[in-house]
Amino acid sequence: MAGRWKNDLTENDVTLEGSYLSRRSLLAGMAGVGLAGVTGLPTVAKAEALKANTFEEITSYNNFYEFGTGKDDPAKNAHMLTTAPWTVKIDGMVDKPGDYQFEDIMAKMTIEERLYRFRCVEAWSMVVPWNGFELADLLNLAGVQSGAKYVAFETLYRPEEMPGQKTRVLKWPYVEGLRLDEAMHPLTIMATGIYGKDIPNQNGAPLRLVVPWKYGFKSIKSVVRITLTDKEPPTSWNRANGREYGFYSNVNPEVDHPRWSQASERRIGGGLFAKRVPTLKFNGYETEVASLYDGMDLTKFY
Ligand SMILES: Nc1nc2c(c(=O)[nH]1)N[C@H]1C(S)=C(S)[C@@H](COP(=O)(O)O)O[C@H]1N2
Ligand SMILES: [Mo]
Q1: Is residue 6 in some structural domain?
Q2: 131: domain range?
Q3: Dihedral angle at the C-alpha atoms of 257, 293, 238, 266, nearest 10 degrees?
Q4: Which listed site, 31, 43, 110, 180, has its alpha carbon 20 to 30 Å from 256?
Q5: 77-108 burial by CB neighbour count: b if 16+ within 10 A, else e?
Q6: Structure confidence at residue 272 as a pLDDT band (50, 70, 90)
Q7: CA 253: distance to chain centroid?
Q8: Is the Cβ–Cβ distance between 213 and 285 less than 8 Å?
Q9: Peptide bond into 186 cis (omega under 30)
Q10: Is the dihedral of CA 195, 59, 279, 208 positive or negative?
C-alpha cells in the first residue's frame, strides 16, 4: 500500500478495452491497491476518472447534527467549536491507555493524501482528497490487547459549543464502532485535513474517522475517545433506528434502505448538473474489503 493517492483506481475500473490513462498513472493507481506486481500488463486501462469535489462543495454541504440538521448548518455554526487543545482518550483493551494530545499523535503519525469516494446513506456522494493517517498506526501505538474485537468511538460532548446537543435529535454524544479488522484495514483512516489544509470544523476537526466503503454516518467526527472492547459497541444511528441503520452499514447497491433505493447516488457538484451515478458495491472498494465479510449474509448484517 505504497501509493500516494490510494485507490484512485480499483480493479473494477481496470479493463483492457480503453486507454484513458497513461500506463504510468495506471501503475501508480494500481500500486495503491496492492497490485504493483502486475508490471507486465500488456496495455493501458480504462479508469473511472475520480474527479475530486471542490473544497467549497466538501465544506458547505455537511451532516454534523451537533451543529444542526440542515446541510448548511455545520458550515454556519461549527466556528463555535474550540479544537485546541484537543485530547483523545484511548482506553479499554490496550497496553497504553491514556489521554493522548492531538499534537503528540500528529508528531508520531505519517500523514498521507487519500482520494476517496464518500457515500452518505441518504444517497448523495462526493469525492474527497483527505489528509490523514491510518487508524491502525494509532491503535498500534496504544497497543491492542489480544482479547479486543471491536473499536468504539465517541465525539466531543460540549453543548455550549455544539448547539445541536441541546436538542434530542440524537442521543449525545455521537458514538460509532467498527470491528477490529475493519479498524485495522489500511483503507481506514483518521482524517486531519482536506486539500492539504487542516480539516475544517464542519468536517470534523481536528480528527475524524473515514471508512470509505461504509455509509458516511460510520465516519464519526471530532473524536475524543477510542475504546478497544470485546463487545459490539452501540452506534448512534443504529440506536436511533435499528431497522434502518445496521452496525455494518457497508455501501451496498443491492440492499435498499427501507425508504429509498441505494442503487444510485447523486454526486454533489455542478448545481443543476449534478449527476446520478450508479452506486458501487462497498463504494468501489470491493477488491480490498469484500474478504472481511466472507460467509456473512450482507442483507442480514446490513
Ligand atoms: N459526530 C458526528 N459525526 C458524523 C455525523 C454527525 O452528525 N455527528 N454525521 C455523519 C454523516 S450522516 C455523514 S454523511 C458524514 C458527513 O461528513 P462530511 O460532512 O464531512 O461530508 O459525517 C458523519 N459523521
Ligand atoms: Mo450520512
Answers
A1: no
A2: 11-293
A3: -40
A4: 180
A5: bbeebebeebebebbbbbeeeeebebeebeee
A6: confident
A7: 18
A8: yes
A9: no
A10: positive
Q: Does residue 300 lie in a domain region?
A: no
Residue 256 in any domain: the answer is: yes
Ligand 1 binding residues, C-beta < 6 A:
62-66, 120, 155, 174, 203, 216-217, 219-222
Q: What is the pLDDT of residues 190-223, one digit of tens each?
A: 999 999 999 999 999 999 999 999 999 999 999 9
Give the CA angle between residues 292, 145, 148 to the nearest 5°. Answer: 45
**CA 188 – CA 286 distance, rounded (Å):** 14
Report pTM: 0.87
Give domain status of residue 144, yes or no. yes
The model's pLDDT over 6-39, given as tens digits with 9 standing for 90+, comes to 454 443 333 322 332 333 333 333 333 433 334 3
- Ligand 1 centroid from CA 215, angstroms: 10
CA of 229 to the centre of ligand 2 (A): 25
Decide: 265 and 119 in contact? Cβ < 8 Å. yes
Angstrom distance (rounded) from CA 14 to CA 273? 27
**CATH assignment of the domain containing 29:** 3.90.420.10
Protein residue whose Cα sits closest to atom 21 of ligand 1: 62
Residue 111 C-alpha cell reads as 500523514
Give me the DSSP letters along 17-45.
S---S-HHHHHHHHHHTT-TT-TT-SS--
**How many folded domains does the chain comprise?**
1
